[in-house]
Specification:
- The protein has 9 helices and 19 strands.
- The strands form 3 sheets. It has a 7-stranded mixed beta sheet, with helices on one face. Strands 1-2-3-4-5-6 form a 6-stranded mixed beta sheet. A 6-stranded parallel beta sheet has the order 14-13-15-12-16-17.
- The radius of gyration is 20 Å and the shape is globular.
- Keywords: Ligase.
- It comes from Gemmatirosa kalamazoonensis.
- This is DNA ligase I, ATP-dependent Dnl1.
């Protein structure tokens, strides 16, 4: 195997790199800075953007900053990072050694992301890929359609004199939602956890172009009649006073789990749940496994059923591991939808 497992999780032996390990000796490749992929390791390898985001979330440490497309000799391998399309700085890693080429996708999507170059499907001998939405029910509508439905939701709330509340994770989806909202001309009040990371996006050269504007949430601004401001906040505030004490509100959650058959019951207190996801859907997952040309595909972060489906297509596939972070997160952290599932 070009990719193995250790007590710390997935490992590239030729490069001597642990993959998205919560803690490990030596160097950990961090695919992106969602809290469920961050690490306590003393040394990390990642893109410059992920290094900055990781430092903001987990504190400073030694970081090997490798931009997309540049290769680095490490151990007995050369590694290259390519865009994953999941969030700012998210990357797949490709390791090439005398034994062959291996890649680990981390979380990814092939659809467009305003903060990432298009994701690239690696051509490799062994592929380790996430399969969060690895069931046929998870075929997402085009993003353009979902964004149009988000705009219609906001307009309908304004027409009723209500505050449209949009729930999105603090890193990644929060910035994507804000980018689309201000681009369409809406003014947005942003929860501090999202705003802090928006500030960092701007500092890293990724602004939020208007004609709309955004500012940090101030309670008084949303208490006036016909405020005509969108409140962009995190899912864990949906039952908090900042949302519940609004004089009139309509609430929308952005999550790929909207397509789960139990979503209507789990999210019954919400007005709209849109499957706007920062993960690959079922068809993108199948396409990635197929176009990689890998002689062996290992799946992680999802159900074993996806590996079974790949085998039915003639692909040698094996479910290698569940989500790498199974510990309970601290209350102040914000996981991404791949870890949360329906537990909102």
């Amino acid at each position: 195997m070009l990719v193995t497992r250790t007590p710390h999780g997935l490992y590239l032996p030729a490069a001597g790199l642990h993959l998205d390990a919560r803690t490990a000796p030596g160097t950990v490749f961090v695919s992106h800075a969602h809290s469920d992929h961050c690490t306590a390791a003393e040394r990390i390898l990642c893109t410059p953007e992920t290094a900055a985001l990781h430092e903001a979330r987990r504190g400073a440490r030694e970081a090997v900053r490798l931009p997309y497309g540049e290769s680095l000799g490490i151990g007995e391998a050369r590694v290259t990072l390519t865009p994953a399309g999941h969030a700012l700085g998210s990357a797949m890693i490709v390791s090439e050694s005398a034994e062959g080429r291996a890649a680990y996708t981390g979380d990814f999507k092939l659809r467009a992301n305003p903060f990432s170059p298009p994701a690239e499907i690696p051509r490799v001998d062994e592929l380790v890929m996430e399969c969060t939405f690895g069931e046929p029910r998870y075929r997402f509508p085009p993003d353009e359609e979902l964004i149009a439905r988000l705009y219609a939701f906001v307009d309908a709330a304004f027409a009723e004199g209500a505050v449209p509340v949009v729930l999105a994770y603090a890193l990644g989806k929060g910035q994507e939602a804000l980018w689309h909202l201000v681009r369409a001309g809406y003014d947005v009040a942003v929860h501090g956890a999202i705003a802090n990371l928006c500030d960092l996006h701007v500092a890293l050269g990724h602004p939020f172009p208007g004609p709309g504007s955004w500012s940090r949430y101030r309670r008084a601004e949303l208490q006036v009649p016909n405020a005509r401001r969108v409140l962009l906040t995190t899912p864990n505030t949906r039952k908090a006073p900042m949302v519940q004490k609004l004089p009139a509100k309509r609430t929308c959650l952005l999550t790929g789990w909207a397509l789960h058959p139990g979503a209507w019951n789990i999210y019954k207190d919400l007005d709209l749940v849109l499957p706007l996801s920062d993960h690959a859907d079922f068809d993108e997952l199948v396409r990635t496994a197929t176009e990689s040309g890998a002689r062996k595909v290992y799946t992680v972060h999802g159900l074993h059923k996806f590996a079974e489906h790949l085998r039915s297509l003639g692909i040698d596939a094996e479910h290698l591991a569940d989500h790498p972070q199974t510990d309970e997160l601290a209350p102040t952290t914000e996981p991404d939808e791949g870890q949360l599932g329906l537990a909102l």
